[in-house]
């Protein structure tokens, strides 16, 4: 309790003033809970001073539950001391925002195994068989309006929990985002796909991201698309991932806003998304005196590469939105270099479509997602 009060004093949380006349005073109360590590052992006691009337759902710490983006941004940035802010050394092994961070001589491991176990227990998927991939190969999901509806709140809760898990498990990102498109009126067919993702997590609980310790600090990106993959509106899905050396630092899977008229257009738009992310990373790293020129984007479509490298505006590319043609401008200014990569080496495939178990396991390992002891 005293630690909480001292923190208020250091941060100048409040200022004492005379009580305004005829105003109702809101009282305060203390909320106590135990902080646990990944094994469930009590590591410290926590006290919070809150306003009377404040209520918190049992078992949920809102400071931790609603901070995945903050934690991801913290891990992706370089910490700098801020005047007036105290920094506490939490040691080589951290458990913060449901992320387990383990440091060793080889590098850093980041996982959410404890959170994954809690999800399996919460949604009753502790028993039953396991699967080697989060989704069956070549399965296309649609609205399936004739199927029986399921509990919408439970479905949304499962999707939200899985989205939080993608902070350390990019291998499930595409499948979770695909299922998230049907939250308004989920069907039994959609629920079965979500449960399969949980069954995959059951056999990969200890998997997480590994960041090896080395001197390779090159910046690169992989870009791919699943042409007309959505069978409801025939829009394509863009997938991309970015590396600093051998470390995966950014990834996304997103349905494109427009309907592409060709595979080349879908691939070109996906590469443009990747380009914007790389340019943002270049600018951010420039603040730390890290300079990159001709950052490579690896694409497995020759036509898309030719469009990006050809400075002549062909009539057949006029239908592509102007905002995507900035990729060609970046190539001409030598900010970005778009290069060909064979399909078997295209790491972004895992973010756009379902893969065979062998291909899925291979790409997963190359992304640095591995079993963590």
TrEMBL record:
Extent of the signal sequence: none
Residue ranges of the TM segments: none
CDD domains associated with the record: RNase_HI_RT_Ty1 (cd09272)
Domain Reverse transcriptase Ty1/copia-type, residue spans: 11-72
Superkingdom assignment: Eukaryota
Pfam (any one): RVT_2
Full protein name: Reverse transcriptase Ty1/copia-type domain-containing protein
Organism for this UniProt entry: Rehmannia glutinosa (Chinese foxglove)
